[in-house]
Structure formats: structure tokens, C-alpha cells
């Protein structure tokens, strides 16, 4: 997903409210029965009376290529891959880093976590080495 896609917005509408969220600001969605909690990278949190499956449908309908950044991990989470700091399989933990550098820990069952790790490893192998230019220190 390129920069312009990261700047795209997800609109979540309920009977009483409308929320407009920039994709790049999403840290994760977390299912809680018929509710879904959303945590933004700046620490702001929202809860909707919408299940996570419906949220996933909204993402697919509204943002083309959203799977390049937002990924369903297990039954309970949709995470922003750009915020992953650490995947720990033995402890079943996923650490996401927020804007202010504050790590958020999610407990995720081993199989979905292993799938995420494998997916990211394959993604790294697919990417060609990028040429870097020295930064100007002027």
C-alpha cells in the first residue's frame, strides 16, 4: 500500500455517529462479542456496536488493497502490519508500537500468530533490496 493509500479514510457509521479514520492511524481492531474496539496509533480508543466481521467487510468495500496494511489475525483482531514491533510465538504475544513509541501488547493464539510471522517473512523475501542514498547532514 503506497503513501496515498495510507492516507485513505475508513468511514464507520452507526445510528448515532460517524467516524472517519485515516488507515495509517489504525493500530488494531479487537473483537468483543458483538462489539469491536478500535485503537488508534495516537492512543485514542473507540468501541462500536458492530462485530469485527462487519468491520472487515467495510474495509474491503471502502479501501482497495487494504489487506496490504490491515490484516486479520485470528478471530479477534485486525492489525496494522506497519506497527508490528515483535511477534513472540512461545508467549503468544504480538507487540504493536504506537505513534508515541508506546508498545501495545496483544495476546493472540499460536496458530494465527505463526501465520502472521510466516506471512511477514515471505513478504520480506519478496521485496527486492532497496537502494539507499546517504542523507544530507547539512
Please tell me about this protein's structure:
The chain has 138 residues and is an alpha+beta fold. It has a single domain, classed as Beta Barrel (OB fold (Dihydrolipoamide Acetyltransferase, E2P)), CATH 2.40.50. It is built from 3 helices and 10 strands. A hairpin with a 2-residue loop joins β3 and β4. The two termini are 32 Å apart. 21% of the residues are buried. The model has no long low-confidence stretch (mean pLDDT 88).
What characteristics describe this protein?
138 residues, alpha+beta, three-stranded antiparallel β-sheet, 3 helices, 23% helix
Topology:
Layout: H1 3-6, E1 9-13, E2 18-22, E3 26-32, E4 35-40, E5 45-48, H2 52-62, E6 70-73, E7 77-80, E8 84-88, E9 93-97, E10 103-107, H3 110-126
Antiparallel strand pairs: 1-2, 3-4, 3-7, 4-5, 6-7, 8-9, 9-10
Summarize it.
This protein is an alpha+beta fold and 138 residues long.
Topology order in helix (H) and strand (E) letters? HEEEEEHEEEEEH
CATH fold node name: OB fold (Dihydrolipoamide Acetyltransferase, E2P)
Number of helices: 3
At CATH level 2, the architecture is: Beta Barrel
Domain tally: 1
The profile of the biggest β sheet is: 5 strands, antiparallel
Strand percentage lies at 35-45%
Residue-averaged pLDDT, rounded?
88
Instruction: Using the CA coordinates, give the radius of gyration.
Output: 16 Å
Q: What is the name of the CATH class?
A: Mainly Beta
Query: How far do the termini sit from each other?
Result: 32 Å
CATH superfamily: LytTr DNA-binding domain
Strand order in the largest sheet: 5-4-3-7-6
Structural class by helix and strand composition: alpha+beta
What overall geometry do the principal axes of the alpha carbons give?
globular
Low-confidence stretches: none
- Helical proportion, percent range: 10-25%
Count of extended strands:
10
